[in-house]
């Protein structure tokens, strides 16, 4: 493995133990072997690991949740490539800082030295800022490493993506986080080894689980617990203080948000009440606005249940109204109940499909004339022109339906947009509509020579 280059400060790559630095920073991995939970990407024999160990690096986008090791991997890219390392944050930096970093990389390039430029939260840069990197990546002035928690397909320019490989980093499993915690407890130089803390396996597992895939968060839990420990022991009472009011990963404006609402909708559609309830609670737990969930479930009742159970629409409205009156947490039970009801209700998207088919027909056929017998005739002139002539008033017709009367424009005669299912209430609608269409076709002579 290439040695760490002299032009990369030791404090930048691997900070020495310092009481002022958080435990998570002190325990930052120094080699690929110390990175936990990324065996798929960095395990022995993986393509990226082989490239790094050979000193052959490429511009890349590291996409993954917080605390999975994106910044650490960027640091190791610089070490393994024997390259100068620079880091900027898209949250704190503007185009001026980008230009300054690129100018420094240009100067080093002129001297024959490589530069790794790490851009944290790269998705927060606008198009102009992202475009600034393109010529420097193409010319090899920089090895670009961008880190993002958001889907690069949506957040990054296609031009930047085409010049970088996207590497997906996983949320770290609880078992892998336990390994990181054990290392911190055993490390006398950078970790908590000198404290000789007593922590049982159950306590480590609880901290790892509470970290929710974030190694940095788990190490923070451990550091706080060490400060609160009595007689060098981290007990259950200590953990309760440390882990109180923790929150799960949830970004109200990011991909996780849309993934979870998609999971809720599809669980309802698949008639899985347990999954529907789980995803509803996950979103509420993450801080999603309950009114948003109420609105989405109202949409589900219309789109996926429709006329198979018209009560679902009413219940969704009532649940929304109930939440508005009760608020949290009591009102959330109403949302939970409607989620369960929607999941077990009979399903039909035929009304939704019929509406879309009618819309498509309107777009394709243009402004078709209203048949003369259906037109309004409020004046003598209009009556004289034939408006309303031949119209049959259905209540006055035997059976209550003028079976031979056509209501669609002539160009659409015989078109059927709505095809009800045999599910729930819609089964009765289907039975009646099928019979009505059959006798109507006979009365009109449709299909009869």
What would you note in describing this structure?
- Helix 6 links the parallel strand 2 (84-89) and strand 3 (115-120).
- Strands 2-3-4-1-5 form a 5-stranded parallel β-sheet, sandwiched between helices.
- The model is unreliable at 1-17 (pLDDT under 50).
- The protein has 22 helices and 5 strands.
- By secondary structure, it is mainly alpha-helical.
- It has helices at residues 10-13, 23-26, 39-42, 47-53, 70-80, 95-110, 127-131, 134-138, 152-155, 158-162, 174-186, 201-210, 215-228, 236-242, 255-269, 273-285, 290-305, 311-326, 330-344, 350-365, 380-384, 425-444, and strands at residues 60-63, 84-89, 115-120, 143-148, 165-168.
SS strand fraction: 5-15%
The low-pLDDT segments are 1-17
Major beta sheet, strand line-up: 2-3-4-1-5
Radius of gyration: 32 Å
Largest sheet: 5 strands, parallel
Given this structure, which CATH class of the largest domain is correct? Alpha Beta
Secondary-structure element series: HHHHEHEHEHHEHHEHHHHHHHHHHHH
The number of domains is 4
Number of strands: 5
Q: Helicity level, as a percent range?
A: 40-55%
Mass-distribution shape: elongated
* Mean pLDDT level: 87
CATH superfamily of the largest domain: P-loop containing nucleotide triphosphate hydrolases
Cα distance spanning the termini: 87 Å
